[in-house]
Amino acid sequence: GMIEEPLATTSIVPMFALSRLASSHVKVVLSGQGADETMGGYRRYQVELLRGFVPPFAAAALARVSRGIRSDALARGLGAARETDDVRRFESVYSVFSRDQIAKMIGSRENRAEQRIRYFFDLLGCSRQEHSVERMMTLDARMNLADDLLLYTDKITMHHSLECRVPLLDLDLVRFIESLPRHFRLGIGEGKRIHKWSAGRMLPAGIVKRKKKGFLSPTRQWFQSGGAVREILLEKNSRFASVFDLREVEDVLRRHEAGANRERHIFLLLSLHYWMRDFLAPRAPAFGCAVAV
Fold first, then answer.
1. In terms of CB atoms within 10 Å, which end of the chain has fewer, N or C?
2. Residues 130-134: what's their mean pLDDT?
3. How far apart are CA 154 and CA 170, in angstroms?
């Protein structure tokens, strides 16, 4: 209810706890959000860089191998490797559920996610950028941040009466970073180069060069046993059940319980369940487009 729309980002959970803790001490906080999108800190950028070194026949083999990989992020990246159209490949990397999975779940197939990405791809002139990883970062900085990370951060911190500022998204700073040659931002095996070079002037190497840690949530363990999550999502009389095929939903739960990481899938399904319960008008049509982003 606090976020007011369905999201699949499990870091909402630790952000809530962190904001609650911070609110007992201060009224204004600074966030480092924006560095990964503008300076290439995410693992998907490494996959996109490496894709240029993979011949077509090998990309097809990687796509087949990806079906058996338990890591959700790695499976999506490898599965998209053989797609030559940037927009369709980016959609595949970003999507929580594939188009085929969405069709099985709600009995409808649509391409609104692709249309939205292509709109910004053209609006921002991404085709003029030299490398596809630069195009991906450009889109992420305008779409991923606004529609996900900044959205939930703003709403959660506001809920706790906190003012959250994002200095790394200062407009002049972003323009400067995006004007730099690609190798200043990232390279094979290394992201956020200019960020680290700058930090190295003030911080010890042990901090600057330490391994990247995600803003992790315990949701993978929470969902492992099923229990209450199964009761909520498989309730036959809910509005959620009137749109989603519960057999397909149960298959997602079963795969996660068997060891495949489907925590983002389940988190999104729970988010959709509560959104439909609290915000969907009784006679309003339910659209499945939110599942694709």
1. N
2. 96
3. 16
